[in-house]
Amino acid sequence: MWEYIVLIVAIPYLLYIFSWLKNYQYWKHIMAIPGPKSYPMVGTMMQLIFDEDGLFYSERKRSRAFYPIYKRWSFTLSLVCLISAEDIELILNNIKHIKKSHIYDFLHEWLGTGLLTSSGSKWQNRRKILTPAFHFNILQEFVGIFNRETENLLNVLERDCDKPYINVLIPITEFTLCSIGETSLGVDLGKGHTSYKEAVHNFGVILTKRIIRPWYHNDFVYSLAPLAQEQRKAVTVLHELSTRVISDRKKLFSADGQISYSDRKRLAMLDLMLKAKYDGADIDDEGIREEVDTFMFEGHDTTSMAICFALMALANEEKIQEEILEEIEEVLGHSGKLPTYNDLAELKFMERCIKECLRLYPSVPLIARVAGEDIKTHTGYIIPKGCDINIYIYDLHRSTQYWENPEKFDPDRFLPENVATRHPFAYLPFSAGFRNCIGQKFAILEIKAALCCILRKFKLKAVDTPQQIKYKSDLVLRPVGEVRVKFVLRK
Q: What keywords is this UniProt entry annotated with (predicted)?
């Protein structure tokens, strides 16, 4: 019995010693970087596991305490966290650091190695195939779909507007899921899909638990854990929907790769991939499913959170809310005319408000890369080649180094003259550089279309305040509980 215990302790210890001796220079640079209190071998792991505030809030504390850079490490794993725009630019503006960190490997069971998680030539090839799906001409046609789905959303909100409040997470998630289905996948996902939405949420919870437990970073060890079984169940649900979507869409293609429908001139994103496969491009059925899973997740969950937080924020800013309505009426009049692409482009003040919402509530609060070479930061520390790097967008967006009174909602931060004087990497709701978000114009257009129709029909009244909203670590910026807003029909 004792022999087994000694073996269990000895093996990790020997691996730890071997890693530090073999990579002495690497660990010398890592240990020079400031960070929270650490202990031999286990490093800073204990704080992550036993922090009473939860991972999201403990990271915010560390970002404030060690600004602009700090480290976390445990056993043979290390991580450097960046908060300053100057250091972040060094990463995002250099193609040598284009590879995503190993944390993204934990998404492979669900998303495979699609656009979000791949690197190198595969990423470049997928980006080339998918970019035409977000061309200006196609985005123009999407506005009609956004308007139609928003009308369905308005009916739901009107049905429940006599209640003290509406938890906007539910109807908004339904809206964005239907929108991504119709626009990018070319299918009507209809109502429901509760199991899919629950599986997305469950996967995020599982991912967070895995991240803070270093022993689960080993695939074999993790595969034996009950947590891995929970993940497999969630992935089964997620893949069932994406597989069905692809199967239904493939039926519209003839054997020679021609599309047999006649009522749609444009090609949805899924159509482009299917057509590319038929034309001999380097993408197979598994690759198509990877991208469908990626866009079903990123295309609905991130935008859903953005709209929910925007509604909550505007409910707490009645004056700004009315200014947006005045702009809408100037552009669209009072006739109830639905907005066109050009109309939405004219809503400059609304766009500044959306940008301010995304500053305060970035849908993706964290992105991560691998150092492709040694990096000397602006404070003189060396991030060694091969080290994982976390870029904390949430903290960057609330840093007093770049934002005066950062907790205040102020759309004038995005007036051209103010943007021109700010560091170009101080605002990253859609990342930046070579791996910026391919769907950012799509997202802004969808948010604009939704807010335009909602604010014309309802006045938003605050129920939850920004100070009351609590967050948890997840794939996106997700609240612990509800996001509650009162909707009042305008006369």
A: Endoplasmic reticulum, Heme, Iron, Membrane, Metal-binding, Microsome, Monooxygenase, Oxidoreductase, Transmembrane, Transmembrane helix
CA distance 363 to 176: 14
d(CA 444, CA 208): 28
d(Cα 422, Cα 413) in Å, to the nearest integer? 9
Cα–Cα dist 441/283, whole Å: 25
Residue 37, classed as helix, strand or coil, is coil
Chain-centre distance of CA 355, in angstroms? 15
Exposure string of 128-141, with b = 16+ CB inside 10 Å and e = fewer, is ebbeebbeeebbee
65, 14, 58, 99: which is closest to 369 by C-alpha? 99
Look up residue 448 and give its two tokens: 């604009």
437 is in an annotated binding site: yes
How far apart (Å, rounded) are the C-alpha atoms in residues 34 and 71?
Answer: 6
DSSP 154-173: HHHHHHHTTSS-EETHHHHH
Torsion of CA 352, 354, 356, 358, to 10 degrees: -140
Distance CA 167, CA 155 (A): 15
Q: Please write the tens of the pLDDT for every residue from 93-136.
A: 999 999 999 989 999 999 999 899 998 888 998 888 888 888 88
Is residue 309 over pLDDT 90?
A: yes
Tell which residue, 238, 239, 262, has the closest CA to residue 252. Answer: 262
Q: Which residue is it, tokens 């929907």? A: 241
Global confidence as pTM = 0.92
Nearest alpha-carbon partner for 444 in 111, 18, 146: 146
Would the pLDDT of 423 be above 80? yes
Query: Helix, strand, or coil here: 433?
Result: helix
